[in-house]
Each structure stands twice: as C-alpha cells, then as structure tokens.
Design a protein that fits this description.
Keywords: Cell membrane, Membrane, Phosphate transport, Transmembrane, Transmembrane helix, Transport
Organism: Microbacterium kribbense
Family: Belongs to the binding-protein-dependent transport system permease family. CysTW subfamily.
Membrane topology: Multi-pass membrane protein
Mean pLDDT: 83
CATH architecture: Orthogonal Bundle
Helix content: 55-70%
Shape: globular
Number of helices: 11
Strand content: under 5%
Pfam families: BPD_transp_1 (PF00528)
Oligomer: single chain
Number of domains: 1
Low-confidence stretches: 1-6, 310-316
CATH superfamily: MetI-like
CATH class: Mainly Alpha
Structural class: mainly alpha
Number of strands: 2
Length: 316
C-alpha cells in the first residue's frame, strides 16, 4: 500500500510547499542576521567609546579639553571633503546618465554603461595612487593660477600647496569614486521615466532637451536625490584614497588650496590606529562611532526619500 505525504494546508485551503517554507525561513534568518550584526557593531562601538566620551581634559590626543573638541575638526573635514566631491560628481553623474539613456547610440551607450560599472570595481588604493602620482602634479599649476588670480576669495586663499596634495585634490578623487554608483542609479531612474510622457512632449514640438527637462527630470527628482545621498555615504566612509592624498591636520578651514588640510574621520583612524594605545584607541573608536551614526543617518534618509516615490519600483 502506497502512502502519500500530507502537506501543510494554509488558512485559505492552499497547500504550502516545502521549498517555499525553506526559502521563507532562510530569508527571515538572513534579514535578522543583518540586524543582529548591525546591533553588535553599534554596541561594540558604544562600549569602546565610553572611556573617550567621559575622558578628562588633556587625556585625549592633541590635548583636547573633551572628546567633542577632538572630533569636531575630523567631522568638519569629513563633511567638507564629501560636500566638495558631491559638488563635482553630481552634474557629471546626471549628464553621463542622460547621455547614456537619451542621446548616445545603443552600441555606444552599452559600452559606456559597461565602463562606468567597471570603474566602480577599481580599489580605492589605486585611486589614491592616481591622486598622488598623476592628479596632484597635474592640477598644481592650475591651483597656482587660482591662488594668484582669485586669492581674494576665501576658498582659494594662499599660500598654495607646492605639491597639489590638498583637500580639493582629495575631493576630485572622491568624486571619481562616487560617480559610478550615482550614474548607475540615475541611469536606471531615467530609463523608468514614462515613455508616453516623453513621446507626448516630442509630439507637441519639444526639443530633446525640453523633453528631458519636462518629462524625465521631474519624474526622477527623488531618485536623483537618493543617488546623491548614497554617493555621500560612500564619500563619507572612504579611507585610503583620502589618507594617501592629504597632508592632514586637526584644523577647521575652508581654504581648498593650502598644504595644511582638515582630516577626515576614516583617514585619521587608518593613519593613527597602528600606533595608538590606551585612551587613544578609545578616542579613535569613538570617532568611528560618530562616523557610523552619520553614515547610518545618510543611508536611512536616502531610503526614506526613495520610498516616497512608489513609481521607482527598482528600489522599493
């Protein structure tokens, strides 16, 4: 006599397959594991950072009166470098994405898309070497010209660095590093713009640029903002490229052409951690906690902006 395995039955009478149950359980475990890892990292950072947060004046590196006086120049340098990078990368990313999706021939657009995706796979150390060996000497004469002709403007105030290794050079390197991810997101958003809206604008006599301005960009506005936020998250956490290019110091200044530059949190940790002992280690971990909170806030904000636009189904 043959026996038939009885499958579980759901409330609506349909049978539940074993494969579906295994897959559902696996996804729940994987999602819970991500949350557990994130919570474990946060708890570790908080515990290790507590001694630095309650340290007495003079105990922290640089003879800072308290932790916030120590970390403020690093936070400023991190945000300033990332802001300069986004200022350079945002128009380039949007322009490249528009060219790939609406202007370039199909074969050329596929090639450019492949090159942009390949650019994201280059290690940050290679970008740092490129910034030191090739970019810094190349832009130094231009920096000199800016200092001589526009030195009255605070951003270009002299003395100009003789090596070209400035916060502006680091921002250019960061911009090149975040362009691939920003371009990829913008490209996918532009491709999802309603085709009927584009054709209607062209049928009414609009030029290609007017069609893009009236039909594509308004649809992609929230997606462009999310791409900028994700690029900001990448720029905030970059380490070795910035550490290799900059000649950092614990200063707060907006001048972008001088040899003395504000440092970033990630670069400071990479440079100081091998030789740090005692409370210095706790101070570095505490600065990492600040960077963790800033990066998490940026990513949460980007996710919230994307989720507001239900039409962008690729990120929902």
């Amino acid at each position: 006599m043959s026996t038939t395995a009885v499958r579980p039955v759901t409330g609506n009478g349909s049978k539940v397959r074993v494969g579906d149950r295994v897959f559902a359980t696996t996804t729940v475990v994987a999602g819970s594991l991500i949350l557990a890892i994130l919570a474990a990292v946060a708890i570790f950072l908080v515990i290790q950072a507590l001694p630095a947060l309650v340290a007495k004046p003079g105990q922290l590196p640089g003879e800072a009166a308290n932790f916030w006086q120590y970390v403020w120049p690093l936070v400023f340098g991190t945000v300033w470098a990332a802001f300069l990078a986004l200022l350079l990368a945002t128009p380039l990313s949007i322009g490249i994405a528009l060219f790939i999706t609406h202007y370039a021939p199909r074969r050329l657009s596929q090639t450019l898309g492949y090159i942009i995706d390949l650019l994201a796979a280059i290690p940050s150390v290679v970008f740092g070497l490129w910034g030191i060996v090739a970019l810094a000497p190349f832009v130094q004469p231009f920096y000199q010209w800016l200092g001589e002709n526009l030195g009255w403007f605070p951003l270009f105030a002299p003395p100009v660095s003789g090596t070209g290794r400035t916060i502006l050079t680091a921002a250019i390197v960061l911009a090149v590093m975040v362009i691939p991810i920003m371009t990829a997101i913008c490209r996918e958003i532009f491709l999802q713009a309603p085709r009927l809206h584009e054709e209607a604008a062209l049928a009414l006599g609009a030029t290609k640029w007017e069609m893009v301005r009236m039909a594509v960009l308004p649809f992609a506005r929230s997606g462009i903002i999310s791409a900028i936020m994700l690029g900001l998250g990448r720029a905030l956490g970059e380490t070795f490229a910035v550490a290799m290019v900059l000649s950092p110091a614990l200063v707060v200044k907006f001048a972008v052409l001088q040899a003395q530059n504000p440092n970033t949190i990630a670069a400071n940790i990479a440079l100081q951690f091998p030789e740090a002992t005692g409370l210095s280690v706790n101070a570095l971990v505490a600065s990492g906690l600040v960077l963790f909170a800033v990066t998490l806030l940026v990513n949460v904000l980007a996710r919230w902006i994307v989720s507001r636009r239900a039409a962008f189904s690729g990120a929902n």
